[in-house]
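ingest -> validate -> predict -> emit
validate: passed (alphabet ok, no gaps, 99 aa)
predict: started
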Amino acid sequence: MSNLTCSSSNCVHNSCGECHAGAITINGYGANSSSQTTCSSFLDRENAAFVNAVDSSNAVDPNDIKCNATNCCHNCNMSCNADNVTIDAANARCDTFEP
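emit:
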């Protein structure tokens, strides 16, 4: 089971380091490094029209982290089985990615 920490404070789903997107998917099919991954749920707070409409009552459940980064050692049948998952502040990439 994973613990998700999001450092992308400019994402509309981020509330004090917790993600409230409902579920996230890490993109990066064929990625060989974390720089080739992205959080598909990332929405830049400055460019989002619905910031006030985001439900911040429930953080993403660890079972709701899907992973398309098939080369990551934590990917198990398109789900993440890392103990802790960290999303990068600057690029909304998965810093937990390991080949």
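The chain has one domain: 3-87.
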